[in-house]
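Case study 2.
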Amino acid sequence: MTPPSGSLIPILRLSLTLVSALLCSCSSPSAEEPQQSAVNGDLLAREAVTAALLQNGLAETSRGSGLVSLYDNALTALLFIQEGDLPRAEAILDFFDARLDTEMRVAGELKGFAQFRNALGIPPVGEEKRWLGDNAWLLMAVNAYRERVDPQGYESLHSALNQWIRSLQDVDGGLFGGTNPSGSVIGKVTEAMLDAYNAVSGDDAFHANLLDYLNENIWVSDTGLLRAGENLDPDYRYAYALDVCSWGYCAVPGFPVSVLDAANRFLTAKKNAEGRLVTGYCFDQDRDTVWYEGTAQMAVAYAAAGNGARAAEILAELDKGFLSPSADSPAGLPYASNPGTGFEGGALWEGADRVTATVACVWYLFARKGFDPMALGREGKAGALGRFAAL
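Prediction:
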């Protein structure tokens, strides 16, 4: 998810304005009540990811969208590394490595990579949001490459991302979320801080102070949940976000597993564009759509917790969400089940329920393969150590 301009709380991983302008219109869904049919989700999701690849090696948010997300490409690189498809993984990492001095550094100062760019790899002029969370996921991909392929690989990229993320730490231990296009500082957003904790190498004062901040300022013992951001009333309808639950458990060693069942407050059941009822998790407590990316993240988290049965149940529901191919989109999982709203009630873009989304397919593949992209980042970290106690 991504913080909207002027807010400390994430709404979507995709920019609603950019996506709605770039995604094509799609055919109308059938009014019939179809029977569920078995799908080869692994094959369809992998084909959808491949279909989104551009000649420059980057992955579009969906085939033909013309929009490239840093987060989507970090995830796609992680998938390729896990599969051993190193040429495709390296094409993505090489792209960003080659832009250290022309994009990440501004007047000699580290600023992070832009969150979005066009199909040519060029960020929109004057709209270069540099978001902590997405840069942390790119660092996770670099870490995975160095672990599995070459311990010295992408040394400059690895160092720059670590340095920039560490530079965002405030005196209270929390992390600012990067910078808006205007240059203003993005506030402290929980999901991004969890990403950064997991991604940054080592286990030192940076990590301990960050966990102290989350424990003292974000954790709500009454609910056993982290809030989506600071200064939110726990009774506020949008105080909690789904991905903070799955990522909290996966990012931090020893994080209470109870947070996964506490995420049941986000469960809902909605019909998809082809009329099948899918049960899964919404972004937030308004429960007006099934968010497929977030639902797959919960499957990954349950598997990481040793609850393979629950992970399998979630995957079986995701299988119902796969759509048939159309002239505008390959078969696969779209972003959401139906035209609902994202975090905090912002309307999803046209086609969010009908156009296959790279991010949803990648997280589905992670869950199907039993791959936890945060497992590496937990290694060597002391973790919760008595923090995050629930009543």
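The chain is about 40% helix and 5% strand.
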